[in-house]
Amino acid sequence: MRCFESQLWHSQRGFTLTELMVALTLGLIVSAGIIQIVLAARASQRIQYALADLQESGRAAVWLLGERIRLAGYDNPATLKTPVSPAVRGGVGPDAIQIHFEGGDDVVDCRGQAVAEDTVVSERFEVVDGQLRCSLLDQPLVDGISNLHILYGLDTDFPPDGLPNRFVDAAGVGTDWGQVTGVRLAVLAVSDDDVGLDTDARALMLGDKTIGPFADRRLRAVFSTTVQLRN
């Protein structure tokens, strides 16, 4: 009986200190690995969300500006008003643009409000504090836009054929705004937070100028298009 009790006591003895330390170390290693995986997944998710917002903001800004510029110079044939000229003009700042057009059927301003056919509207678009804005609106059109750069296409042919021969900035146009037949615009969209893994050390081409590098970890992308003036 005593021999059986002795064997039972030996079979029920606990782990040694060395065994506990090894088990604790292995547990910490596994836990650290799991934490790293979770943190990496969360960082990747933040980047994906930021990229999606970036794409949405950039595409929305380019599309909206393109639609407004295509309206520039519209002259309602139902009225006897003098044709709107010039259709576009450089804004107050170097990276701003003004467009002019007359109201009419299905013509709305940047607020979405109908414009009467005997009314000429002037809208100015520019980037202020990371937002694309219209001069007629108190609220931004698109958030997450840090830069806007505009080049104007001049039709220098004689006689003019309505096609731009070269693109220049507002200063290069001088007083020849009637020669502008196209607009090339570029916007720089930027994420709200520092979600990138590394500091953005790239130099980006925004139209004909170089910007960057940037001393932060925000995500950035350039969106551009060329718009032919219709009117």
Strand content: 25-35%
Total E-strand runs: 11
Radius of gyration: 31 Å
H/E series: HHEEEEEEEHEEEE
Low-confidence stretches: none
Mean pLDDT: 87
Give a short account of the largest sheet: 5 strands, antiparallel
What class would the helix/strand composition place it in? alpha+beta
Shape label:
elongated
Q: How much helix, percentage-wise, in residues? A: 25-40%
Intertermini distance: 110 Å
Number of helices: 3
Spatial strand sequence of the major β-sheet? 1-2-3-4-5
Summed up, what is this model?
The protein is 30% helix and 28% strand.
Primary descriptors:
28% strand, 231 residues, five-stranded antiparallel β-sheet, alpha+beta, four-stranded antiparallel β-sheet
Could you characterize what this model shows?
- It contains 3 helices and 11 strands, in the order ααβββββββαββββ.
- It is α+β, with helices and mostly antiparallel strands.
- Strand 9 and strand 10 (209-211) form a beta hairpin.
- The longest helix is centred in the first third of the chain and has 55 residues, at 17-71.
- The termini are far apart.
- The model has no long low-confidence stretch (mean pLDDT 87).
SSE layout and pairings?
Elements: H1 2-11, H2 17-71, E1 88-90, E2 96-102, E3 120-128, E4 131-134, E5 142-143, E6 145-154, E7 166-168, H3 170-173, E8 180-190, E9 204-206, E10 209-211, E11 220-228
Antiparallel strand pairs: 1-2, 2-3, 3-4, 4-5, 6-7, 6-8, 8-11, 9-10
